Amino acid sequence: MKDLKEIASYVLEALKKAGADDAQCTVAHGKAKELNIDGGEISLMRTVIDNSISMKAIKDGKKGNASINQFDEASIDAAARECIEAADAAVVDDAVCIADFTRNAEFDVGSKSGDMDLFFDRITEFLDTVRADYPKVILEQVFSEYSETDTAVMNTNGVYHRLREAGYTLSTMFSSHEGEKATSFNGYEAQFGDLSRPLIDLGMQRALFDQSQKELDASPIGEKFTGKILVAPTYLGELIDTALYKFAGSTELINGTAAWKDKLGQKVADEKLTVSIIPLDERICGGERITDDGYVSENFDMIENGVLKDFGLSEYAARKTGNKRAPSTSSCMAVAPGDKTLDEIIKGIDRALLVCRFSGGEPAVNGDFSGVAKNSFLIENGEIKHAVTETMISGNLEKMLNNVVAISKDTVEDGASVLPYVLFDGITVS
Length: 430
Fold this sequence. Notes:
This protein is an alpha+beta fold. The chain has two domains: 4-215, PmbA/TldD fold; 225-429, no CATH class. The protein contains nine helices and 21 strands. Strands 9, 10, 11, 12, 13, 14, 15, 16, 17, 18, 19, 20 and 21 form a 13-stranded mixed sheet that branches. Strand 20 (404-413) and strand 21 form a beta hairpin. The longest helix has 18 residues, at 116-133. The termini are far apart. The model has no long low-confidence stretch (mean pLDDT 96).
């Protein structure tokens, strides 16, 4: 196989010959070694090879895209022609572009010496530990993988970036069973760079198995109340990401419906809340080194002490709205920890719901939401009492972000995020 830089150069030349004014491509070669478990038993071991090329061409102010999974010249030439045909069929858009040249960079992330024998031992150890420590938990499916990926990004503005990365992933789906009783399914995923510790200790996996067993004895919440919910890291990232998308997302800003469209540099949340995008942080496995647009990634704050610092826009959305491009297109999120331990926060609660997962539709434009709190627990008089049967919660996301009671010192790292527990007020629980 030719070097990816040579292939990328050929792709750009093919796009230019086909009629592109400007062109950009991403060429990637990946190898993944998978080890899967079904019903608690190892069911599959395999190695997967993946080649991919994504092309973007701009012709007469119109954009076309094409993707293929072959590296031979005939396939590239055919895809280049399809890319230009797509551009010819598109509408003129002054915001379409390729990355400007700023600087070129090469990155090596993670260990390229995946130890599959030790990985197998760690998986076996994980299965044995679940059976011994959580006998009511059934591992419906476990997907584990060690992957190595080599990626080249190149365009006709002189941009050339190279990223070589490697790492492990463990994804579990599980439920608990006792006699006729059974819980709903739950799942968890963690990314990690080495095998130095037991996989059971990654992120919140132990806590989730423990909670799953306790959910076998779930009971109703009782009397409806409007008050506090303690949001676990397993739901916090989704909650904040939904709020950012709804109030400051690219589509909403382009459409003019984003509630925060005129609030850059202004307070939009409680001053205790700082939300950062941290693809380069050492606690993140892999992360992002090259943005989707073709720029070198950087860490940045979206909300700092409650103030909106950045919209998190792609270059296209930035051009459409007249705002600046975000330093990263990553979803690797960190919420700054608070000054109380989780135990101290719980001890100060009279009545609240610990929410570990949420199932609901998309919030309204103004942020109103409602849905089912799953894998959740009642907190009363400073103690976690019992798991609750599926319980409705409703409120308003914008008001919620401005009604932060406490943030824990404790944080959970899953290789893709660093998140604490956050106590919010003003939520209806029924």
